[in-house]
Amino acid sequence: MPATSTTSTRLLTLRLGVRYAPFVDTALLAAIETDRWQRDIGATAGAAGLQETYRSTRLVAGAQRQWQFAPGRLTLDAAAVLSSPERLRVGFSGVFDDAAFDTRRGHGIRLGAAFHPASAGRFELRTGFDWIRHGRSAGAPLTANGRFAGTVAQPEHERRGFSLTLAAVF
User: Fold this and answer.
1) What is the pLDDT of residues 130-163, one digit of tens each?
2) Which one of 4, 11, 84, 142 has the fewest beta carbons within 10 angstroms of its own beta carbon?
3) How confident is the model over 22-42, as pLDDT tens digits?
4) Are the beta carbons of 135 and 158 closer than 8 angstroms?
5) Residues near 44 by Cβ (< 8 Å), separated by ≥ 6?
6) What is the pTM of this model?
7) What are the residues whose beta carbons fall under 8 Å from the beta carbon of 2, sequence distance 6 or more?
8) Domain residues for 103?
């Protein structure tokens, strides 16, 4: 029988990147990113909740192209993404001891587009799509009060994100 619960998430991402423009309308992009993602799935009357924290680092490499038109500037970019294994910590609402383990390396793509209207001054509309796939992790020991109770693993999973941003450009 399905259970109804409440889930909350929090994400913090830090990014350091470089942009090299060998031509006026074309650039090469590279970045390193790190993030911390927390997901809390609330307990219900019939099921314990989960508290998950993921930490990961990614390398991003790609290219960007710009076109200038009378109504404004259009920018498109595409990049390959390589992720280190995610460090995962899982809490089981006290039913089991917390578990921590690494997932597998991930790989994916990042696509983006931006439009800077000539009439909008400093404003730019940006959109982006990220897709990363991580393979199934190895099993990690699961304990209850320090005693072995089984194993826990992260199944193969995908991280997908879509963003829409109105930015002030200085």
Assistant:
1) 999 999 999 999 999 999 999 999 999 999 999 9
2) 4
3) 999 999 999 999 999 999 999
4) no
5) 3, 4, 5
6) 0.84
7) none
8) 7-168
